[in-house]
């Protein structure tokens, strides 16, 4: 069984409405996310990455499948999930499913892919 202490959850770059983020496109965000994940792992974090879509039912299934067989102690949920008002139900669902799957889990929040390490360090 693999063990992961950190779970990063964010919207799949293909699921984002880029009209909400002037100057950002899918290719740029994909590169930033990959660079951020590389930095997280290079900093020594044992991290699972869980990109989700905007549908709460689909996102819940994705999180359940990703977390299965792992011991997650800390979850970082990205700004793309938390910030847009239209994702409130998605954010609620993710919080509640993670509390169910990993009692005692702690949460942290970034403001961009580049601030993920700082968010993780606050709570790890």
CATH architecture: 3-Layer(aba) Sandwich
Structural class: alpha/beta
Q: How many distinct beta strands? A: 4
Strand content: 15-25%
Q: Mind telling me the CATH class? A: Alpha Beta
The run of helices and strands is EHEHEHHEH
Mean pLDDT: 92
Low-confidence stretches: none
Largest sheet: 4 strands, parallel
Q: What this model shows, in words?
A:
There is one protein chain. The chain has 124 residues and is an alpha/beta fold. It has a single domain (6-13, 27-114), classed as Rossmann fold. 44% of the residues lie in helices and 16% in strands. The protein is built from 5 helices and 4 strands. It has helices at 26-42, 56-67, 79-82, 88-101, 116-123, and strands at residues 6-11, 47-52, 74-77, 106-109. The chain has a 4-stranded parallel β-sheet with strand order 2-1-3-4, with helices on both faces. The longest helix is centred in the N-terminal third of the chain and has 17 residues, at 26-42. It is globular and about 40 Å long. The two termini are 22 Å apart.
Please give a handful of descriptors for the protein shown.
5 helices; 16% strand; 124 residues; 4 strands; 4-stranded parallel β-sheet; alpha/beta; 44% helix; Rossmann fold
């Amino acid at each position: 069984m693999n063990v992961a202490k950190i779970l990063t959850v964010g919207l799949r770059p293909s699921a984002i409405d880029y009209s909400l983020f002037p100057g950002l496109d899918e290719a740029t965000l994909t590169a930033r996310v990959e660079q951020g994940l590389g930095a997280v792992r290079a900093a020594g974090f044992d991290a699972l990455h869980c990109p989700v879509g905007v549908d709460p039912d689909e996102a819940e299934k994705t999180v359940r499948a990703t977390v299965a067989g792992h011991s997650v102690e800390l979850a970082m949920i990205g700004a793309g999930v938390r910030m847009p008002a239209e994702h409130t139900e998605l954010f609620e669902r993710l919080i509640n499913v993670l509390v169910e799957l990993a009692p005692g889990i702690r949460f942290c929040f970034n403001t961009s892919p580049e601030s993920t390490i700082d968010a993780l360090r606050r709570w790890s």
